[in-house]
Amino acid sequence: MTASELEQFTAWIEDLIRARGYDIDSPRGGGKSRLADEAGVHRAAITRLLQGQSMPDLETTRRLAHVLRVPVREMLIRSGRLSEEDLPLPDLQDSSPGAGAPAHRLTLEEAAAGLGVPPDQWDMFIKVAGQFLPAAAADVRPERAAAARGGSPAVKNARKG
Fold first, then answer.
1. In the CATH scheme, what is the homologous superfamily, with its name and number, of domain 3-78?
2. 40 — alpha (psi -120 to 50), left (phi > 0) or beta?
3. Which residues of 12-30 are buried (b: 16+ CB within 10 A; e: fewer)?
4. Which of 19, 66, 80, 145 has the most neighbouring CB atoms within 10 Å?
5. Contact yes or no for 34/24 (Cβ under 8 A)
6. pLDDT tens readout for residues 78-101
7. SS3 133
8. Which residues pair with 93 in a beta bridge?
């Protein structure tokens, strides 16, 4: 890692820490200590990171990522430790030879069944979970949920698993 990469990572992590509500600018703000406590790391590790003196070890990176609500993958890539090629995102295409069709994505009904949500709570699960999906993926109607409770093959299989 070059000094420039460390500076870029330090600037990014400082902005992220501030955006998550930690006061790291005032000496008595307590943001560094609070972040260290919540992440379960030494305050000195936070200080060294913010001063651009050192990169956190893998466990500290993992803990900070969790507390700062950012994927560990992003932390590792932005830190320069690994590249996007080292940590590829899952391909949405079926990886079997000759397959070109997109892999099956779970419906909210299948997810509810697979997670063990009681059937009488599926409508609420689908309504809440659907709020986190893009509009096209969340197009679930109550009648589909009711039909799925009756037993599509995928839902039946999910219930068995």
1. lambda repressor-like DNA-binding domains (1.10.260.40)
2. left
3. ebbebbeeeebebeeeeee
4. 145
5. no
6. 988 888 888 887 765 544 555 554
7. coil
8. 102
Strands (E), the chain: none
Determine the Cα–Cα distance for residues 127 and 138; give it in Å rounded to an integer: 9
Q: Which of 3, 113, 122, 115 is nearest to 51 (CA)?
A: 3
Q: Are 2 and 81 in contact (CB under 8 A)?
A: no
Cα separation, 127 vs 142, whole angstroms: 9
Give the start-to-end residue ranges of the domains of the chain. Answer: 3-78, 108-160
Q: Under a CB-based contact definition with an 8 Å cutoff, are residues 73 and 87 in contact? A: yes
Give dist(CA 144, CA 31) in Å, integer: 48
Whether pTM exceeds 0.70: no
Q: CB–CB of 117/125 below 8 Å?
A: yes
pLDDT of 129 strictly over 60? yes
pLDDT tens profile 49-89: 999 998 889 999 999 999 999 888 889 889 888 888 888 87
Task: Identify the DSSP state of 39.
Answer: H
| Tokens describing residue 113 | 């069944």
76: which 2 tokens?
């590792």
Half-sphere exposure of 21 (CA within 13 A, CB side): 4
